[in-house]
Amino acid sequence: MPYDAKTIMWQFSFPLSLSEAKELSAKGAKAMKEEACRRLKWHDPIPQILAATLEADITGYPVYDRKLFDPILLQEKENITLIGDAAHPMSPFKGQGANQAILDALALARKISVTCDKNPNWRESGVRKSILNKFEEEMAKRSATKVIDSAKAAQLLHSKVVLHEGNEPRGRWLSGF
Ligand SMILES: Cc1cc2nc3c(=O)[nH]c(=O)nc-3n(C[C@H](O)[C@H](O)[C@H](O)COP(=O)(O)OP(=O)(O)OC[C@H]3O[C@@H](n4cnc5c(N)ncnc54)[C@H](O)[C@@H]3O)c2cc1C
User: How does pLDDT run across 102-152, given as a tens digit for each residue?
Assistant: First the structure.
């Protein structure tokens, strides 16, 4: 995809065990570039794009899905909450991590504003009871579908299914797999 007027950026992902992924990432940019070149002996201009990429511009790390966020984990934390990746990390294959983080921030700001406006005595019941419990419950519900769908997309986009050729909507042929 375009990066600026003169450069493009590329992203390459492939399944590995967590230990292998950590090992490759720890070896650094040179090793990651070599691995990408080894795996991507595809049609032009892909090898040329890889060869022209400066090691200083390469970064790589393991990405993986975790269990769903459970609001119970924060019930004892009176004035502390989590938002974004800290609450519901997800692999990037649905492009939803930052979107959900922004929605979390907006939802929390709205909850604080509306609650404090409606109930000037909110301090008596405490931040957790008056604001955070409800906010976390809603965040967990909203983000869960994105976390689940990201994990499914990670599986799908690294499977042979993506090589299916057809001039039709993806949903139609997916149901056959
Ligand atoms: C390859 C890739 C592609 C992606 N594509 C998309 C996409 O297309 N669409 C999308 O919506 N999302 C995408 N995401 C996900 C998105 O980048 C994250 O979900 C988002 O950045 C999470 O925001 P955050 O603020 O929760 O966490 P972060 O962006 O990780 O911010 C946390 C910040 O806290 C700082 N920090 C950490 N520890 C400390 C400390 N002890 N003290 C002080 N500061 C600290 C970190 O340096 C960092 O700046 C992608 C992610 C990856 C890896």
Answer: 999 999 999 999 999 998 888 899 999 999 999 999 999 999 999 999 999
Ligand 1 binding pocket (C-beta < 6 A) is: 11, 63, 84-86, 92, 95-99, 101
Ligand 1 atom index nearest CA of 63: 53
Rounded CA-CA distance 139/73 in Å is 14
Ligand 1 midpoint to CA 117 (Å): 31
Site to probe by mutation for ligand 1, drawn from 61, 65, 85, 157 as the one with most ligand atoms within 8 Å of Cβ, is 85
Q: What is the pLDDT of residues 79-91, one digit of tens each?
A: 999 999 999 999 9
Instruction: Give the number of other CB atoms < 10 A from CB of residue 2.
Output: 8
Q: Which atom of ligand 1 is nearest to the CA of 13?
A: 1
CA distances to 33, 59, 92, 123 from 52, rounded to whole Å, are 11, 15, 25, 59
